Amino acid sequence: MGNRFGKRLNSVEEDVVSEAVKRKATGDHENQKEKHRRLDSIPCDNELDVVSEAVKRKSTGDHENPPEKRRRLDTIHCDNEMPSTSQDTVESRNEPEAVLTQRSPKRKAIADDEPGEMKTKRKRTLGPSAMFKAKYKQLEELGEGGFGFVFAGYRKADYLDVAIKHMPRAKEILYNEEDNTGKLIPTEVAVMLKLAAVSERHSAHVGLLDWYELEDEVILVLERPMPAVDVLQYINNKGGRLKEKEAKIIMRQLVDAAIDLQEKHIFHRDIKVENVLIQTCLDGIRVRIIDFGASCFFNEGDTYEYFMGTHVPPECFILEYYMAGPSTVFQMGVVLFDMVQPTSFKWDLFYKEGQRIEGRLSKNCRNFIKACLHEDPDQRLTLEQLRDHLWMR
What we know:
This protein is of the alpha+beta class.
């Protein structure tokens, strides 16, 4: 046998070395047994806690210096309790939770605010046209007037029937009124806003629900009475004329509606059979006035030169001006004439050729029509006098 220096050993020396190697191997084996014996003898009842703690401390200890590991190992107690922890360790462990608790309300407040801010931004960026389309569904066209086109539709939220009026700016919409901010708005909108503010629920005029101002047009969303037809269609459905008794019912309501507008200083200016609706109700019929496109506000004594409506009163040609009260009475006479006569009213035929009123009508009815259509506005009855006329009783 040779040693690490390459020296040859004698037999005695080889025996000594062999004995030393044998003792070392035996000692290592005994040390392992002794080690297991000592571990088994640890006086701890909760072995699972000890093992768990050992694993935890092994993981922690791998990152600590040997002196710190020895110090921590010295503090282990096996009394079925977890090893005590220093105050610094508790604070260090709880600090993230404390920070999270402090930040949570702030984060929650931000989260609560963000949807509202984004919603506001969306509202700001949503144009009038998109807002209208989001709220209403437009359907078929109902008709065309001097100031625009009217379509059927409904409100998406509750399927309420509405009438949608498109007024192109090319039609020279009147902008003679101001809103609360001083901005000029269409006169029709201003009139209907006032009616909505001061009228009762069952007033004759239709109500304005919404309106949208676009670059090339103004959109009005109006109440649409259902079921209802205009007086012209109602007359046609009845064979071309109405019986005097039925015409009287309609005229009573129409006169009351005109007086209501007059008291609110609103001049419709375009009362005709197409602008008067007959709504069918369980207890009878109800008159509704539509299309305030030519309307305006007036004061007593105001005169006008440029006529905006359909049926032009005679004073526009004779006196070259007209007033709210007399011209409204004239138009009421035209509506009654169209309801009870087989032919529609023609200004030239009536005033120049002496168009006759059929004799089958009662005398009071004929007198009522003549009082409304008198060529001299000063000779016409007022709206209040029409309401008290003998034929209206």
